[in-house]
């Protein structure tokens, strides 16, 4: 049995039972909730390692709950489930702060693989150039490249899985302009599109920039992509 604990939130009791059984059989501890209100109650009592969350629920929907949890500083991986699988809907999920988006109906095996990837914080990054230091400075912040940890004067800076993955990709080649296509491929966002990269860049800037509208470190290169320029 794994020590990792998954909270699954969906208003379909049948699906909840299916996912609880499947994830339990694959070694995870699983808690369930039928709506956002019940999920908040569970989160008062436990600290899960990941959240699987339905978008369309009575009362507070999954997007609103995701956005609220992120504003409260919750940094665990959030994977959204929805019958609305259009790219625009997926972008909306990423903008709310989700790490991943799975359209219904889905194969439980795919959900399991995606969860494992986010729980490992695996970053399928571009090749790291030899001269990248172990620690990169971003003003008052420091990013530990090998450990994937961002910290500042007040301690650790909590990143979502998507933000951490993007920063990992950018720090693999600091000072090099990376195209949206290359970043999307490294982050396994090909099917969502390059717009998803823009969303994650916007979110990451809020973490590392004093003024996200006038970035010092994460720059847009018009027509080419993005480049990270570490410094004090």
TrEMBL record:
Superkingdom classification of source: Bacteria
Positions of post-translational 4-aspartylphosphate modification: 54
Annotated Pfam families: Response_reg (PF00072), Trans_reg_C (PF00486)
The OmpR/PhoB-type domain, residue ranges: 133-230
Keyword set includes Transmembrane: no
InterPro entries for the chain: CheY-like_superfamily, OmpR/PhoB-type_DNA-bd, Sig_transdc_resp-reg_C-effctor, Sig_transdc_resp-reg_receiver, WalR-like, WH-like_DNA-bd_sf
Record key words, sorted: DNA-binding, Phosphoprotein, Transcription, Transcription regulation, Two-component regulatory system
Residues within the DNA-binding region(s): 133-230
Response regulatory domain sequence ranges: 5-119
GO molecular function: DNA binding
Entry-linked Gene3D superfamilies: 3.40.50.2300, 6.10.250.690, Winged helix-like DNA-binding domain superfamily/Winged helix DNA-binding domain
Record's protein name: DNA-binding response regulator
């Amino acid at each position: 049995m794994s020590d990792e604990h998954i909270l699954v939130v969906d208003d379909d009791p049948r699906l909840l039972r299916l996912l609880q059984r499947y994830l339990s059989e694959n070694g995870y501890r699983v808690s369930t909730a039928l709506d956002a209100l019940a999920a908040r109650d569970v989160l008062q009592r436990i600290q899960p390692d990941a959240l699987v969350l339905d978008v369309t629920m009575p009362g507070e929907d999954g997007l609103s709950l995701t956005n609220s949890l992120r504003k409260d500083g919750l940094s665990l991986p959030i994977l959204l489930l929805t019958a609305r699988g259009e790219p625009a809907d997926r972008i909306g999920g990423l903008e709310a702060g989700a790490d991943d988006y799975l359209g219904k109906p889905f194969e439980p095996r795919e959900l399991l693989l995606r969860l494992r990837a986010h729980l490992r914080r695996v970053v399928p990054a571009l090749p790291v150039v030899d001269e990248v230091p172990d620690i990169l400075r971003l003003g008052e912040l420091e990013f530990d490249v090998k450990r994937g940890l961002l910290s500042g004067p007040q301690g650790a800076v909590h990143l979502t899985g998507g933000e951490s993955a993007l920063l990992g990709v950018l720090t693999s080649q600091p000072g090099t302009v990376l195209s949206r296509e290359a970043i999307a491929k490294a982050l396994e966002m090909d099917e969502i599109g390059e717009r998803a990269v823009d969303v994650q860049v916007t979110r990451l800037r809020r973490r590392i920039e004093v003024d996200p509208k006038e970035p010092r470190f994460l720059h847009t290169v018009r027509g080419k992509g993005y480049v990270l320029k570490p410094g004090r």
